[in-house]
Amino acid sequence: MDPKYAWLPSNLLPDDANPDWMNKGDNAWQMTAATMVGLQSVPGLVILYGSIVKKKWAVNSAFMALYAFAAVLVCWVGWGYQLSFGDKFLPFLGKIDDALDQHILLGQAFAAYKFPNATMVYFQFVFAAITLILIAGALLGRMNFIAWMIFVPLWLTFSYTVGAFSIWCPNGWLNKMGLIDYSGGFVIHLSSGVAGFTAAYWVGPRATRDRERFPPNNILLMLAGAGLLWMGWTGFNGGDPYMASIDASLAVLNTHICAATSLLTWLLLDILFFEKPSVIGATQGMITGLVCITPAAGVVQGWAAIIMGILSGSIPWFTMMVLHKKIWLLKQVDDTMAVFHTHAVAGTLGGLLTGFFANPKLSRLFYMSTTWERYTGLAYGINNGRYGAGFRQMGVQILGVVFVIGVNVLVTSLICLLIRLAVPLRMSEEELNGGDEQVHGEEAYALWGDGEKFEKSVHNSVVNGADDVSGHRKNTRISV
């Protein structure tokens, strides 16, 4: 081979942009799915966070999401990907390495999937990014932005990578035990829900008047962000078979079935008990349905997805609307976006229901396993007389829940305590009162209701510095 091509992987020649092991359809779908997940964060959650909070926190809330997306990417390609999916260093962690080396990026992903590592790095990045952004939801309206800037890379490095390697990497200890987490019910949603709640405890509450009254500044924009989140979940769950397969199609359909059922269930409960159909409540129901189906999307049948939707629309509703007002710890922690209920509770529910409803035939499509001893839901184990396999799977799912909760409470607490030694976790009282203007020097809206108005000329041609009819510059904005 010509020395100038020596950097290429041995199985990739300069005139071979599509090596034998690559499937163009799988690669195209994987990159499309990854982009759909990225759009859930930017702009999806940026819009959702910026509109669901009080007007004075719109910029800060949206910016927390935008910053996390960028910071995670730099950390991910630097060391996060290899810690999560690299060679085994510990049973729960990979070796630190560089994910940007061309030999890695242009080689076949895990020597098994029909696309390059570059696609896998991109796909896994958007999952890591959205996890940090979901944590931000618990901290909106009071976390010191500098503290958040430090928190993101530390939590990604010491918490997310542990869960991802343990559960998703072929060398991870929970992966070897047969834990079913199709697309992140444990790694993403349970982790973010527990970590967000824990961080909210250490950061402290919002200002008293913000806790008492925190109306969304734009419900229509909130729905736009929620819609991006919902549709983006097509890539979230549809991309995890790592191929454009029949299992991917099933996962996508189950995802939307569960989300719609959960939304309707939450809505009916709101009407039944509060006599009003709440838009915010319906959005919460949509999210809990998406979260609940995530660990099970491609390994359960459609009827099971409906049952999961009913449960995800009712159990988190009960914990949020009833138990939250009765349990002392829940009342003490100010969880702005209720990520404990929508992600920790719904994620736990989904993980356990996966252990119950997982169809062994569908599981074998996803895991390419030939044994019945693993990936058999308890319902099928009982029905098929394989009691041991069913109870074993449920036990592994419970173990996964305990592990993820323990890791995230411990690591998140240590990170918050460490950051607190350098900078305050919570904003100052002046910043809490001033909001975006005080923290960033910027505001989301400049409206008449804020104390300013625009006065039109008699010719209706001048607004805040526009040229008047004589061609002279003129500023008609006045304070009232």
Automatic annotation (TrEMBL):
Main localization category: membrane
GO CC, one annotated term: plasma membrane
UniProt superkingdom: Eukaryota
Keywords in alphabetical order: Ammonia transport, Membrane, Transmembrane, Transmembrane helix, Transport
GO molecular function: ammonium channel activity
Protein name listed in UniProt: Ammonium transporter
Residues passing through the membrane, by range: 28-50, 62-81, 121-140, 147-168, 180-204, 216-236, 248-272, 279-297, 303-324, 336-358, 396-419
The organism of origin for this protein: Dorcoceras hygrometricum
UniProt record similarity statement: Belongs to the ammonia transporter channel (TC 1.A.11.2) family.
Membrane topology (UniProt): Multi-pass membrane protein
Pfam hit, one: Ammonium_transp
Domain Ammonium transporter AmtB-like: from-to ranges: 28-445
Subcellular location per the Swiss-Prot or TrEMBL entry: Cell membrane
Gene3D superfamilies in the cross-refs: Ammonium transporter AmtB like domains (1.10.3430.10)
